[in-house]
Amino acid sequence: MIQIDDLTKRRGPRTVLDRVSFTAEPGQVTAFLGPNGAGKSSTLRILLGLDRPDGGTARVAGVPYRRLRYPLRTVGSMLDGPGAHRSRTARDHLRWVARTHGIPVRRVDEVLAQVGLAEAARVRVGRLSLGTGQRLGLAAALLGEPEVLVLDEPVNGLDPDGIRWIRDLLRAHADAGGTVLLSSHLMGEVAGVADDLVVIADGRIVAAGPLDRVTAGYRSLEDAFFALTASREVAR
Ligand SMILES: Nc1ncnc2c1ncn2[C@@H]1O[C@H](COP(=O)(O)OP(=O)(O)OP(=O)(O)O)[C@@H](O)[C@H]1O
Protein backbone atom coordinates (compact mmCIF):
# COMPACT_ATOMS: atom_id res chain seq x y z
CA MET A 1 0.00 0.00 0.00
CA ILE A 2 1.08 3.57 -0.73
CA GLN A 3 -0.16 6.50 1.34
CA ILE A 4 0.54 10.08 0.33
CA ASP A 5 -0.67 12.68 2.83
CA ASP A 6 -0.64 16.44 2.37
CA LEU A 7 2.58 16.42 0.38
CA THR A 8 3.90 19.91 -0.37
CA LYS A 9 7.00 20.76 -2.36
CA ARG A 10 8.30 24.20 -3.22
CA ARG A 11 10.91 25.03 -5.84
CA GLY A 12 11.99 28.63 -5.36
CA PRO A 13 8.84 30.74 -5.33
CA ARG A 14 6.75 27.99 -6.98
CA THR A 15 4.65 25.43 -5.16
CA VAL A 16 5.00 22.36 -7.41
CA LEU A 17 3.06 20.06 -5.06
CA ASP A 18 0.21 21.55 -3.10
CA ARG A 19 -1.12 19.28 -0.31
CA VAL A 20 -1.16 16.20 -2.51
CA SER A 21 -2.98 13.25 -0.91
CA PHE A 22 -3.99 9.87 -2.31
CA THR A 23 -3.60 6.15 -1.71
CA ALA A 24 -2.72 3.22 -3.95
CA GLU A 25 -4.29 0.05 -2.60
CA PRO A 26 -3.14 -3.58 -2.66
CA GLY A 27 -4.83 -5.66 -5.36
CA GLN A 28 -5.28 -2.61 -7.59
CA VAL A 29 -3.41 -0.99 -10.46
CA THR A 30 -3.47 2.76 -9.78
CA ALA A 31 -2.67 5.10 -12.65
CA PHE A 32 -1.19 8.50 -11.86
CA LEU A 33 -2.09 10.83 -14.71
CA GLY A 34 -1.33 14.46 -15.39
CA PRO A 35 -0.06 16.83 -18.07
CA ASN A 36 3.65 17.64 -18.42
CA GLY A 37 4.93 19.49 -15.39
CA ALA A 38 1.88 18.60 -13.25
CA GLY A 39 3.97 17.07 -10.45
CA LYS A 40 3.96 13.30 -11.10
CA SER A 41 7.72 12.78 -11.02
CA SER A 42 8.10 15.16 -8.07
CA THR A 43 5.62 13.02 -6.11
CA LEU A 44 7.25 9.72 -7.09
CA ARG A 45 10.75 11.02 -6.27
CA ILE A 46 9.62 11.94 -2.75
CA LEU A 47 7.83 8.59 -2.36
CA LEU A 48 11.07 6.79 -3.29
CA GLY A 49 13.26 8.82 -0.92
CA LEU A 50 15.08 10.67 -3.71
CA ASP A 51 13.83 14.07 -2.66
CA ARG A 52 12.47 15.62 0.53
CA PRO A 53 9.06 17.28 0.87
CA ASP A 54 8.53 20.68 2.49
CA GLY A 55 5.47 19.22 4.19
CA GLY A 56 3.44 16.06 4.45
CA THR A 57 4.39 12.40 4.33
CA ALA A 58 4.75 9.62 1.79
CA ARG A 59 4.67 6.05 3.09
CA VAL A 60 5.11 2.72 1.43
CA ALA A 61 3.98 -0.40 3.31
CA GLY A 62 3.33 1.92 6.28
CA VAL A 63 6.74 3.62 6.56
CA PRO A 64 8.73 6.33 4.76
CA TYR A 65 11.00 4.78 2.09
CA ARG A 66 14.17 5.91 3.84
CA ARG A 67 13.28 3.78 6.88
CA LEU A 68 13.18 0.55 4.88
CA ARG A 69 16.32 -1.48 5.55
CA TYR A 70 16.21 -3.34 2.23
CA PRO A 71 13.87 -1.14 0.21
CA LEU A 72 13.95 -3.29 -2.94
CA ARG A 73 12.35 -6.14 -1.01
CA THR A 74 9.34 -3.93 -0.30
CA VAL A 75 9.11 -1.62 -3.31
CA GLY A 76 10.42 -2.06 -6.83
CA SER A 77 10.64 1.06 -8.93
CA MET A 78 11.64 2.37 -12.29
CA LEU A 79 12.15 6.07 -12.97
CA ASP A 80 13.98 7.25 -16.09
CA GLY A 81 14.83 3.87 -17.64
CA PRO A 82 17.06 1.12 -16.27
CA GLY A 83 19.45 3.29 -14.22
CA ALA A 84 22.32 0.93 -15.05
CA HIS A 85 25.93 1.74 -16.00
CA ARG A 86 26.40 1.53 -19.79
CA SER A 87 29.52 -0.63 -19.62
CA ARG A 88 27.97 -3.36 -17.44
CA THR A 89 26.10 -6.31 -18.87
CA ALA A 90 22.44 -6.68 -17.98
CA ARG A 91 23.24 -9.69 -15.78
CA ASP A 92 26.14 -7.96 -13.98
CA HIS A 93 23.95 -4.96 -13.27
CA LEU A 94 21.27 -7.16 -11.70
CA ARG A 95 23.83 -9.18 -9.73
CA TRP A 96 25.21 -5.97 -8.30
CA VAL A 97 21.73 -4.73 -7.37
CA ALA A 98 20.93 -8.10 -5.74
CA ARG A 99 24.15 -8.15 -3.68
CA THR A 100 23.70 -4.61 -2.39
CA HIS A 101 20.09 -5.21 -1.36
CA GLY A 102 20.24 -8.55 0.43
CA ILE A 103 18.54 -10.40 -2.43
CA PRO A 104 19.59 -13.99 -3.34
CA VAL A 105 21.62 -13.93 -6.58
CA ARG A 106 19.54 -16.82 -7.98
CA ARG A 107 16.78 -14.23 -8.49
CA VAL A 108 18.83 -12.64 -11.31
CA ASP A 109 18.22 -15.43 -13.82
CA GLU A 110 14.59 -15.71 -12.71
CA VAL A 111 13.84 -12.04 -13.44
CA LEU A 112 15.84 -12.06 -16.68
CA ALA A 113 13.58 -14.89 -17.88
CA GLN A 114 10.47 -13.18 -16.51
CA VAL A 115 11.09 -9.98 -18.53
CA GLY A 116 12.21 -11.87 -21.67
CA LEU A 117 15.89 -10.86 -21.39
CA ALA A 118 17.55 -14.26 -20.93
CA GLU A 119 19.11 -13.97 -24.40
CA ALA A 120 20.37 -10.42 -23.82
CA ALA A 121 21.85 -11.13 -20.37
CA ARG A 122 25.45 -10.72 -21.61
CA VAL A 123 24.83 -7.59 -23.67
CA ARG A 124 26.26 -4.34 -22.33
CA VAL A 125 23.59 -1.92 -21.13
CA GLY A 126 24.82 0.80 -23.51
CA ARG A 127 23.97 -1.44 -26.48
CA LEU A 128 20.39 -2.24 -25.44
CA SER A 129 17.47 -0.74 -27.36
CA LEU A 130 15.15 1.66 -25.54
CA GLY A 131 12.51 -1.05 -25.07
CA THR A 132 15.06 -3.63 -23.89
CA GLY A 133 16.44 -1.09 -21.43
CA GLN A 134 12.90 -0.65 -20.07
CA ARG A 135 12.70 -4.42 -19.60
CA LEU A 136 15.97 -4.34 -17.67
CA GLY A 137 14.60 -1.58 -15.45
CA LEU A 138 11.58 -3.76 -14.76
CA ALA A 139 13.80 -6.74 -14.02
CA ALA A 140 15.56 -4.69 -11.34
CA ALA A 141 12.19 -3.56 -9.94
CA LEU A 142 11.03 -7.20 -9.68
CA LEU A 143 14.29 -8.57 -8.26
CA GLY A 144 13.37 -8.32 -4.58
CA GLU A 145 9.85 -9.79 -5.08
CA PRO A 146 8.38 -6.55 -3.72
CA GLU A 147 4.77 -6.06 -2.72
CA VAL A 148 4.74 -2.56 -4.25
CA LEU A 149 5.69 -1.50 -7.78
CA VAL A 150 6.18 2.20 -8.65
CA LEU A 151 6.79 2.84 -12.33
CA ASP A 152 7.21 6.19 -14.09
CA GLU A 153 6.08 5.93 -17.74
CA PRO A 154 6.90 2.19 -17.98
CA VAL A 155 5.65 1.72 -21.56
CA ASN A 156 8.00 4.34 -23.07
CA GLY A 157 9.94 2.71 -25.89
CA LEU A 158 8.03 -0.58 -25.80
CA ASP A 159 6.49 -1.97 -28.99
CA PRO A 160 2.85 -3.20 -29.01
CA ASP A 161 3.92 -6.67 -27.86
CA GLY A 162 5.93 -5.12 -25.05
CA ILE A 163 3.02 -2.91 -24.03
CA ARG A 164 0.69 -5.90 -23.83
CA TRP A 165 3.31 -7.84 -21.90
CA ILE A 166 3.76 -5.11 -19.29
CA ARG A 167 0.03 -4.68 -18.97
CA ASP A 168 -0.32 -8.41 -18.23
CA LEU A 169 2.60 -8.28 -15.78
CA LEU A 170 1.09 -5.37 -13.82
CA ARG A 171 -2.34 -7.03 -13.83
CA ALA A 172 -0.87 -10.27 -12.50
CA HIS A 173 1.06 -8.41 -9.79
CA ALA A 174 -2.10 -6.67 -8.58
CA ASP A 175 -4.21 -9.83 -8.86
CA ALA A 176 -1.68 -11.58 -6.60
CA GLY A 177 -2.36 -8.89 -3.97
CA GLY A 178 0.41 -6.44 -4.88
CA THR A 179 0.17 -2.66 -5.15
CA VAL A 180 0.94 -1.02 -8.50
CA LEU A 181 1.33 2.73 -9.05
CA LEU A 182 2.20 3.80 -12.57
CA SER A 183 2.43 7.22 -14.11
CA SER A 184 1.63 7.57 -17.76
CA HIS A 185 0.50 10.06 -20.33
CA LEU A 186 -0.70 7.27 -22.65
CA MET A 187 -4.36 7.22 -21.72
CA GLY A 188 -5.25 4.26 -23.93
CA GLU A 189 -2.76 2.12 -22.04
CA VAL A 190 -3.99 3.31 -18.69
CA ALA A 191 -7.64 2.68 -19.61
CA GLY A 192 -6.68 -0.90 -20.48
CA VAL A 193 -5.06 -1.76 -17.16
CA ALA A 194 -5.96 0.69 -14.37
CA ASP A 195 -8.49 -0.03 -11.65
CA ASP A 196 -8.04 3.32 -9.94
CA LEU A 197 -7.07 6.75 -11.24
CA VAL A 198 -5.35 9.69 -9.59
CA VAL A 199 -5.30 12.83 -11.72
CA ILE A 200 -2.93 15.69 -10.92
CA ALA A 201 -2.83 19.12 -12.55
CA ASP A 202 -0.67 22.05 -11.58
CA GLY A 203 0.50 20.37 -8.37
CA ARG A 204 -2.97 19.49 -7.06
CA ILE A 205 -5.04 16.34 -7.12
CA VAL A 206 -8.13 17.05 -9.22
CA ALA A 207 -9.69 13.57 -9.16
CA ALA A 208 -9.07 10.21 -7.50
CA GLY A 209 -11.02 6.99 -7.27
CA PRO A 210 -12.09 3.93 -9.25
CA LEU A 211 -11.66 4.39 -13.01
CA ASP A 212 -15.38 4.02 -13.75
CA ARG A 213 -16.30 6.60 -11.10
CA VAL A 214 -13.73 9.19 -12.22
CA THR A 215 -14.76 8.81 -15.87
CA ALA A 216 -18.55 8.66 -15.23
CA GLY A 217 -20.34 11.19 -17.42
CA TYR A 218 -17.50 11.36 -19.96
CA ARG A 219 -17.31 9.50 -23.27
CA SER A 220 -13.78 8.29 -22.61
CA LEU A 221 -10.87 8.52 -20.23
CA GLU A 222 -9.31 11.04 -22.60
CA ASP A 223 -12.39 13.29 -22.40
CA ALA A 224 -12.38 13.01 -18.60
CA PHE A 225 -8.65 13.80 -18.46
CA PHE A 226 -8.95 16.94 -20.57
CA ALA A 227 -12.02 18.17 -18.72
CA LEU A 228 -10.51 17.57 -15.29
CA THR A 229 -7.13 19.10 -16.07
CA ALA A 230 -8.61 22.04 -18.06
CA SER A 231 -10.96 23.04 -15.22
CA ARG A 232 -7.89 23.32 -13.01
CA GLU A 233 -6.32 25.75 -15.51
CA VAL A 234 -9.49 27.87 -15.50
CA ALA A 235 -9.71 27.79 -11.71
CA ARG A 236 -6.22 29.20 -11.23
N1 LIG B 1 14.91 20.10 -9.96
C1 LIG B 1 13.97 21.00 -10.24
N2 LIG B 1 14.20 22.33 -10.11
C2 LIG B 1 13.23 23.23 -10.36
N3 LIG B 1 12.00 22.93 -10.79
C3 LIG B 1 11.70 21.63 -10.96
C4 LIG B 1 12.67 20.60 -10.69
N4 LIG B 1 12.08 19.41 -10.93
C5 LIG B 1 10.83 19.69 -11.34
N5 LIG B 1 10.61 21.02 -11.35
C6 LIG B 1 9.33 21.69 -11.71
O1 LIG B 1 8.32 21.12 -10.91
C7 LIG B 1 7.11 21.01 -11.67
C8 LIG B 1 6.61 19.58 -11.62
O2 LIG B 1 7.53 18.78 -12.39
P1 LIG B 1 7.42 17.20 -12.49
O3 LIG B 1 8.62 16.72 -13.22
O4 LIG B 1 7.12 16.64 -11.17
O5 LIG B 1 6.13 17.04 -13.43
P2 LIG B 1 5.59 15.74 -14.20
O6 LIG B 1 4.12 15.70 -13.95
O7 LIG B 1 6.38 14.56 -13.83
O8 LIG B 1 5.84 16.13 -15.71
P3 LIG B 1 6.31 15.21 -16.97
O9 LIG B 1 5.09 14.48 -17.43
O10 LIG B 1 6.74 16.27 -17.95
O11 LIG B 1 7.42 14.34 -16.50
C9 LIG B 1 7.41 21.51 -13.08
O12 LIG B 1 7.00 22.83 -13.18
C10 LIG B 1 8.92 21.41 -13.15
O13 LIG B 1 9.43 22.40 -14.01
Automatic annotation (TrEMBL):
Domain named ABC transporter: residues: 2-227
Coiled coil regions, renumbered to chain: none
Keywords recorded for this protein, A-Z: ATP-binding, Nucleotide-binding, Transport
Classification via Gene3D superfamilies: P-loop containing nucleotide triphosphate hydrolases (3.40.50.300)
MF terms in GO: ATP binding; ATP hydrolysis activity
Domain of life: Bacteria
Pfam families in the record: ABC_tran
Family affiliation: Belongs to the ABC transporter superfamily.
Protein name: ABC transporter domain-containing protein
Source organism of this protein record: Promicromonospora citrea
